[in-house]
Amino acid sequence: MHPMTPAPYRVSSRRVDRADTVTLTLRPMGGPCPPFRPGQFTMIYAPGVGEIPVSISGRARAGGYAQTIRAVGAVSRALCQTRRGDVVGVRGPYGTAWDVQAAAGLDVVVAAGGLGLAALRPVIRELAAHGSRYGRISLIVGTRTPATLIYHRELARWRDVHGIDVQVTVDHPDHAWKGPVGLVTRLLDRIVFEPRRTFAFVCGPEAMMRAVADDLVRRGVAAGRVLLSVERNMKCGVGRCGHCQLGPLFTCLDGPVLSYARAAGLLAVPEL
Amino acid sequence: MDTAVADSLDPLIAELRSRGFAVVGPTVRDRAIRFAEITGAAELPAGQGDEQDPGHYRVVERDDELMFGFAASPDSAKRYTQPPRQALFRMREGTVEEAEQEAPRVALLGVRACDLAAIAVQDRVFLGRHPDPAYRKRREALFLVAVNCAVPGGTCFCVSMGTGPKATAGFDLALTELTEPHRFLVETGSERGADVLAGIPHRPASAADVAAAEEVSRVAATRMGREVDTENIQESLAAAHDSPRWAEVAGRCLACTNCTMACPTCFCTTVEDATDFTGSLAERTEVWDSCFTLAYSEVGGSPVRGSGPARYRQWLTHKFSTWYDQFGVSGCVGCGRCITWCPTGIDVTEELRCIR
Predict the structure, then answer these.
(1) Which residues in chain A are closer than 8 Å to B299, comparing Cβ atoms?
(2) Are A7-94 and A100-267 the same fold in CATH?
(3) Residue B187 CB neighbour total at 10 angstroms
(4) Domain A7-94 has CATH 2.40.30.10
(5) For residue A245, how far is the Cα from the chain centroid?
(6) Chain B within 8 Å of A248 (Cβ-Cβ)?
(7) A91 touches chain B (CB under 8 A)
(8) CA of B141, closest CA in chain A: separation in Å?
(9) CATH number of the domain at A100-267, please?
């Protein structure tokens, strides 16, 4: 099969997370879902509109990928507007994975900015399911306003049931907000981890990821133990369209998940 | 490799056509030497040459009757290995129908050593981690008749890039045009090539024929219009991301994308989506794209490389540096097309000298 040909997937469920954000469950119309690793993405095609990369947030209980999409452009808007039973095209999964096993025995910091939480969800679920394999587990989340926070119920469950230290900060509080306000990096002061024995998973806007990674490294976390998920214009997912290059890397093949040891120098060059 | 001598190309063209190949060779059209289907040697540009310099291309009369007395055509083999537009698939009511992958049997006559190197580069791009079956099919359907360069152009630098001027691999047949008397030394590079040679009149090459052909390539190698020092080029360019020269060259660059379209190895593409009037049939087409466009690097509504200097840096650094990281070879084969076809005459060889 041609690497650019999608397989038809049916929207088997649609959950509205926020005004502009939905989580779709996508199930292949023929055969089982190909396996995925945490951090990988698929290319989702809205027929006639276009195709975008979307992180896989997990495997739905009834089979299929759970994928969270925020309506920001023509394609994501079309995908957010799909209804149960609609058919979209899916290619993948593609890309590198969060190496959760590498964090075994270490304190774990998971830092999410906005929708970045969707790409980290498979990591958090793994940490929650096998908490005893890891040291202290912290999840820090930054979001624009209380209304843009996704996965409320899961955040509460990860905190209350699984004992993960979950902290949320917002840029712009509303009247009801009693939590922290400001950048997610400020939450690093509110969690407990031993920097020299810490592994971190970071996903969010690039400026946020660099700020968190720099802060962690300054505190003594090895750059090779800080993973982030880099976003570039992934149009094909298979290294043939060229659009997602970051210096020598094809972000779709060599990323999206990169260690900060590899990514720091590349991200520091403006407009690379 | 067998060598032979043939006096005329008409039997070769006829033999290839009888085997079902459309023979595509150089012809003069649109005031340029361009590839088009031919049926006989009379359509080749005998006595015509070209003049190539930065931002300059002219077809000129030669004072001899050489059929291949010119350098790189504005067309490269890319047009045949990776067509400018390719239908990918159609989707209708939940079914996906892959586009028929056309692979016309084409014999390219007059492929230069630089272009053979470019095809080898493309093989690494399209037959790598996610192989493209349509590319493979087109590649297998392509019969390559190389012609060793006798008259390099003013923008040629294949010697610097180690790709020419003599074709050494990747062809079915390779010709060297010889004069007094006019004849062609023919080398076979594949079983298919040997099979075609067996079907046309030829005689064994004499030592004098072989020596004459070697002399053509030796002299051509001394006539490069440009040169590039490739020593340490990958590392030095990767380290030059903050050179002031990027802003200087971007001041002359129109971001017109000509260099990337003319380049035989530039492989970047984008896709076009369309629906029929009812919206129930959706079609997707892949088309050539260029890193000089703003949309190319767009993420979340704004380009990563919004400035001209950043886009020029991306192109040049990819060609001469990060291509090695990605594919283990240079992205440049030294054909000089990007220099000739740049409307403002930007010369990559000069830019490399200034930047490194």
Answers:
(1) 231-233
(2) no
(3) 23
(4) yes
(5) 20
(6) yes
(7) no
(8) 18
(9) 3.40.50.80
Q: What integer pLDDT is reported at residue B215 of this predicted model?
A: 98
In this structure, the strands spanning A137-143 and A165-170 are parallel
Rounded CA separation B160/A195 (Å): 51
Ranges of residues in chain B whose predicted pLDDT is under 50: none
How large is the C-alpha radius of gyration of chain B? 21
Question: Which of A13, A45, A11, A44 lies closest to A28, judged by CA?
Answer: A11
Closest CA to A119 of A102, A100, A144, A134: A100
- List the domain boundaries for chain A: 7-94, 100-267
pLDDT of residue B1: 63
Of B132, B273, B283, the CB nearest to A3: B132
Q: What angle do CA B241, B247, B250 make, to 5 degrees?
A: 110
Nearest to B177 by CA among B112, B133, B261: B112
- Alpha-carbon distance of A269 to A271, in angstroms, equals 6
pLDDT score at A61? 81
DSSP, residue by residue, B93-158: TTEEEEPP-----EEEEEE-HHHHHHHHHHHHHHSSSS--HHHHHHHHHEEEEEE--SS--TT--H
Contacting residues of A for B133, CB less than 8 Å apart:
1-2
B81 in contact with chain A, both atoms CB, cutoff 8 A: no
Question: What does the pLDDT read at residue A271?
Answer: 97
**Residues in A touching B101 (Cβ below 8 Å):** 2
Asked if A28 reaches chain B (Cβ–Cβ under 8 Å), the answer is no
Q: Tokens 């062809």 — which residue? A: B171
User: Residue A52 and residue A64: Cα distance in Å, rounded?
Assistant: 18
Distance from the B163 Cα atom to the nearest Cα atom in chain A, whole angstroms: 23
* Residues contacting residue B184 through CB under 8 Å, at least 6 positions apart: B5, B6, B7, B9, B175, B176, B177, B178
Strand partners, B87: B285
Question: Could you tell me if A239 lies within 8 Å of chain B, comparing CB atoms?
Answer: yes
Say how far apart CA A255 and CA A263 lie, in whole Å: 10
HSE, CB side, 13 Å, CA atoms: give it for residue B121. Answer: 26
| Backbone φ and ψ of B192, nearest 5° | -60, -45
Q: pLDDT tens digits, chain A, 272 residues: what are they? A: 899 999 999 999 999 998 899 999 999 998 888 999 999 999 999 999 999 999 999 998 878 999 999 999 999 999 999 999 999 999 999 999 999 999 999 999 999 999 999 999 999 999 999 999 999 999 999 999 999 999 999 999 999 999 999 999 999 999 999 999 999 999 999 999 999 999 999 999 999 999 999 999 999 999 999 999 999 999 999 999 999 999 999 999 999 999 999 999 999 999 99
Is some CB atom of chain A closer than 8 A to the CB atom of B279? yes
Interface of B with A in 225-244 (CB under 8 A): 238, 241-242
**Is residue B273 classed as helix, strand or coil in its secondary structure?**
strand
